[in-house]
Amino acid sequence: MRISELSRRSGVPIATIKYYIREKLLPAGNPTAHNQADYDERHLRRLRLIRALVSVRGLSVSAASDILAALSENEENTHLALGLVLGAMQAEERKKPPQEGEEVAAGPMAEAERLIDATGWQLHPLSTGRTQLARSLQSMAQVGLHLDWQTLLPYARLAEQTAVLDLDQLSAGGDDRLSLAERAVQVTVLLEPVLMILRRMAQESESFSRYGSPPGEEPPAGARPAAGEEPAAAPGETPGAA
Amino acid sequence: MRISELSRRSGVPIATIKYYIREKLLPAGNPTAHNQADYDERHLRRLRLIRALVSVRGLSVSAASDILAALSENEENTHLALGLVLGAMQAEERKKPPQEGEEVAAGPMAEAERLIDATGWQLHPLSTGRTQLARSLQSMAQVGLHLDWQTLLPYARLAEQTAVLDLDQLSAGGDDRLSLAERAVQVTVLLEPVLMILRRMAQESESFSRYGSPPGEEPPAGARPAAGEEPAAAPGETPGAA
DNA sequence: CCATGATAGACAGTGGAACTCTCCACACGC
DNA sequence: GCGTGTGGAGAGTTCCACTGTCTATCATGG
Known about the structure:
Chain A is an all-alpha fold. The first copy, chain A, has helices spanning 3-10, 14-22, 41-56, 61-73, 78-94, 106-119, 129-142, 149-172, 180-211, and strands at 30-33, 36-38. Chain A has a two-stranded antiparallel ribbon.
C-alpha cells in the first residue's frame, strides 16, 4: 500500500508518518521507484503500536524508538525480546536525570537490595531494576514517605503474582498472528496504565467500604469543596452502552 | 524564611519557584512588604511534593496543579482528599484526547462494566474510572490485544489487594507530621512508579524461572524455542477473538 | 542618608520535543 | 501531457517548563 493508505488506515497524518520514519521508529517502505515505496501490514501494526506506546503509555518518541528497536532485533524470541524491552524501558526512566550528579544514597539502595533478597527474585546482574527502585525510594523519602523493605514486601508479592499473569498472557496469545515480541511489548508496557486504573478504582472502592461514603461524594453536611469533578465529565458517551 | 532560603533548602531555583507560584502550584508567601514575603515549612514540603509529582511520577505541571488544589481544599479529611486526588488524576488522563471525536466504543465499555460488576467494586457514579478503563481497553484492542473481563479479573483482584495495602499505609502513617491528605497523594500517586518497577523486576525473574536464562542474556545455544511450547502456561481461555 | 543587594511581580525569551509545512523532482493514471 | 500523489529533506510551528530581564521597592550597613 502507499503512504496515503497507511495514513488513512492508521489515522496518523502523512507528515507524522514521515517524521516517524525519519526518527527511525518506523522502517521505511520498500522503495519501488525514486518517489514510490510501499508499505505492508507490518508497517500498519508497527504504526499502531507506536501510537499506543506514545499516547496510551505516554512514552517519549525516543523511548518508543528504543523499545521498537529492541523488538526488531528479536522478532521471534519472546524471552529475549522481553529482556530487551525491559532494558529499553529502564533506559527510558534513566533519561530523566541525565546529569550524573544524582547519586543514589546508600540507605535506599540497601533497602532495595534487602527487598530483592527477601523476594528471592532472580535478577540479571546488569539489570538496572535495583538502582531504579532505590532511586524511587529515595525520591519518596525526600518528600517524607519512608518505605522500608518490610512494608514493600507485600507489594512485591502482589507484583510477583501480576507478573505470573503477565507471562501467562504472553504464552497464551499464540493464536494471533502478532509476533510474540510484539505481545511482550503490549503486555509489559501497554498494560501498565490499565493496572494503574484498576488500582485507583480499587482504592476508591476500598475507601468507600472503610469510610462509608464514596470518595468525591459530598460529605454528609454542607461544605462541598468545589474542586471536585464535573458531573458531565465523561464527554459524550453514556455508560449504559451495552 | 525568604525565597532564597526556600530555594537553597529545596534545591529548586528561585526562578522556578516564582514560576510555580505564578502557575498556582505553590501558594505565595505571606507578604510582609511590597517586595518581601516569607515562606514556612509548609511551602517547603509542598515544593518537594511538586518536584516528586513532576519528576518522579512525570505529571505535567497543570496536572500537579489540579492535584495540589484538590489537596489544599481538604487538608484534614483524608478520605475526601483521596477522592479529590483520584478525580484530579483522572482529569489528567483526560487531557490527552482533548478533542471530543474519540468516542469510546460500546465493546470496550461493556467489557469494563462487566469487569467492574464482577469485582463488586463500589464506584462513585460519577467516577470516570469506567470510561478510562474502556478507553485503555479500546486502545489495546486497536493494536491487537483484546482483553476480556475474564482475563482482567485476576488482575483486578490483585489491584484490590494492592489497594488494601495502600489504605493501610494511609491509616498507619499518623505518626508523621504530614497531613493525611499529603500522604494520600504520596501513596496513590507517587507509589505508582515503584509498583511498576516491582512488576518489571518480577517479570524478569518470572521469565528467568520459566525459560531458564535471564532476559537480556543471550540464550545458551542458538534457536531457543521461540513460540513453541510454553511450560507452565495456563491458557484457560484465549482472549483472541471477541 | 544613601549605597548595596535581595526581593516580588510581570513579562519576554529559551530550548527541547513532537509534530507540521513547504519544496522539489519525479512517477502514475487518465 | 498533466494534474495529483509521492519520497525525502529541511525549515517552521506549537506547546511546555522553565529561565532571564526589568523595575520598583524594601532592608540593612556604613
